[in-house]
Design goal:
CATH topology of the largest domain: Rossmann fold
Radius of gyration: 29 Å
CATH architecture of the largest domain: 3-Layer(aba) Sandwich
Distance between the termini: 45 Å
CATH class of the largest domain: Alpha Beta
Number of domains: 3
Shape: elongated
Keywords: ATP-binding, Cytoplasm, Ligase, Nucleotide-binding, tRNA processing
Subcellular location: Cytoplasm
Helix content: 40-55%
Pfam family, one: TilS_C
EC number: 6.3.4.19
Enzyme class: ligase
Strand content: 15-25%
Number of helices: 15
Amino acid sequence: MIKKFKEIIENYNLIEKNDTIIIGSSGGPDSQFLTYMLNEIKAEYNLNLILAHLNHLHRKEASKDENLVKATAKELDIEFQVKIASMDEYARKNKISAEDAGRRLRYAFFNEIARKYPGAKIAIAHNKNDQAETMIMRMIRGTGIDGLCAMNYKSSNIIRPILSMEKRDIINYLDQNNISYAYDKTNGENDYTRNYIRNEIIPKMENINPQVVDNLYNLSELLKNDLDIIESRVDNACDNVIKSVGKYNISFDKNGFEALEDSLKSRVLRRAILKLKGDLKDISKENIEQFISITSLGNGKKSVKDSLIFIKNYKTYDLYIDQSNNLNKTIELLSPDKKTYFNGLIFNVTLVDKVTKTDKYTAYFDYDKVDFPLTIRYRKNGDKFKPYGMNNNKKLKDFFIDEKVDRNLRDKIPLIISNDEIIWIVGHRVSNDFKLDKTTNNILKIEVENDK
């Protein structure tokens, strides 16, 4: 078993010499097996192992499980860390299942430890049977290729070194080597979906084909290879059609997006949503199809999913998180050589000797014409502005119309204000009254970037 374990580590590049590894342990057979396997290679790889156990107070035997993991750590001379947190209380408070609560609490605890050790990895004892169960569970709930790939050997700082090992082989190894492990009686109950799949569905599938667990695992590996090809195409599509990425919005080239096949449109949108929201929770196939449907409609049409909005404009498609609650926000710009944060943007204000960088998100002003403190806000009714090159004021609304600024974007464009006068419509035009001229002695530079 140790030979196979080392092959997995090497084939998937899971562990390097001098790594710190936090072992997530429940005291059950899988985590006990993983602990002993890692201990076997500890000296060879010069590993710093930390055995981490969350006592979730869910079962009467919880304290016994904790004591078993603690005893294992002592026997193997491994550092032991424990945390006590009620998964049932957390589930009630957050209105989620106890199973989900336990998972969230465990990973939060493991990551809490990992943050103390730069580059630390978290080893989780998922095995081949877990992979098969995950695939079936996702098929039942509804999923695509991504979901059927199920768990990876490596995901960020998480490694799964026994993912290709079967449960029965793990149990046999532990029994043959007289290694103690905890037995969770609730695993035999069918209250949870995963337990029902493990105890009822998979045994029935094995009656049809005894190799079903192997076949499901192999399918997940084949799908991962296919997904790599798909993701490569999505990478290229994103590079070609995404024009800009902000904290709350992503803009797509209109012609480029429309030229994509619907399957690629879907993938590009899903990736963009993931970037903005951090997850794809509650985003269904139907939601994505609804977003794509506006490509056949006129400019200004939009599709809304909760706070997420996808809209068709003159030259772009824009996906953004609704920030309407912040439209009345006003903030003071700090003095020169300071940064100011405003709704996903960073404003850098500096005094400079000359004009260097020139783009639509960098503007220069005659410092002596500006009254501090400057403020940042969005437009208000009646706003007027004297655009660069003009001697008369112009209604801001008319300026936006003439510049063909999409209607849905007009309320989201920051304005820089000096003594109630607009000196810059960010990304568009500076005021003629504050421009640099032959009499300018001091130059004020304001540069805007996304707060990513």
